[in-house]
Design a protein that fits this description.
alpha/beta; four-stranded antiparallel sheet; single chain; Rossmann fold
Length: 262
């Protein structure tokens, strides 16, 4: 799926102007990271693409299309991975991973088979019968990721999905995401505050200014695949990219406005 954002501005009714004249294209099969200070409109833009903004609460101008159609017509083909896992506590891990397939009416034997294969792929085999509260945060995020992948969305929106994890688990999950993305070729738009994470994952990094967020710069990330997050950060190429992108970011972070995160 191709995501096209054309001259989009978003303001909330309370008088907060979040996003200003943002234009962005994410090509089919591309992994793009959206990076910027807190409150600059990153999450709000994801919600606009997913059709989750309440028109009674905000005003959106400009256009958002998915494969050329208005976003509202294609939102059912999107997956969304949130900052914290949204697993159902009364369902086992295996049952949680099956949820999207179940909603789509996939026959039980097939959805169990698919869920077991994906759990094995990300190292969750053996935990099929566990409930979310019996597993670690990293395990729950893996389950949330593969639950989204299980029903094969055309694109996935990811809103800081690893932000609550410790450094080691973040890098483990980054490695899992890269491996799954290389395997599936799914279009991914990934929001993060972490410059290192953006460079590790993305083919392009889109930098937003402080609120109201504007597309300030777009950086190509010409690092070879497959990428190993643990080894990549020790390379000269990574350091050079980090220095270059941070030069465009630092003034935005220093001038972060107080108030509502977006």
């Amino acid at each position: 799926m191709r995501i096209a954002v054309e001259h989009v501005s978003i303001s909330f009714r309370q008088g907060v102007h979040v996003l200003e004249d943002a234009s962005l294209q994410v090509e089919s099969g591309e992994l793009v990271a959206l990076l910027g200070p807190s409150g600059c409109g990153k999450s709000t833009l994801l919600n606009a693409i997913a059709g989750l903004l309440d028109p009674l609460d905000c005003q959106v101008t400009g256009s958002i299309t998915l494969d050329g159609d208005a976003a509202g017509k294609r939102s059912s083909r999107l997956g969304y991975v949130f900052q914290r896992d949204a697993l159902l506590p009364w369902r086992t891990m295996l049952e949680n991973v099956q949820l999207g397939l179940e909603i789509r009416g996939v026959e039980r034997a097939q959805r169990v088979k698919t869920a077991r294969e994906l759990m094995r792929l990300v190292g969750l085999d053996g935990f099929e019968g566990f409930y979310p509260h019996q597993t670690s945060g990293g395990m729950r995020q893996r389950a949330q990721l593969i639950r989204t992948l299980a029903y094969e969305p055309a694109a996935i929106l990811m809103d800081e999905p690893f932000g609550a994890l410790d450094a080691q688990n973040r890098m483990l999950l980054q490695a899992e995401l890269l491996r799954l993305w290389e395997r599936t070729g799914t279009t991914i738009l990934f929001v993060t505050h972490d410059l290192g994470e953006a460079i590790t994952l993305a083919q392009r990094v889109v930098v937003l200014s402080k609120r109201p967020g504007r597309i300030k710069q777009v950086f190509d990330i010409p690092l070879r695949s497959p990428r190993d997050p643990f080894e990549l950060r020790a390379t000269a190429e990574f350091a050079a990219l980090e220095t270059r992108i941070w030069a465009g970011l630092r003034d935005e972070f220093r001038a972060m406005p107080a108030g509502r995160d977006a």
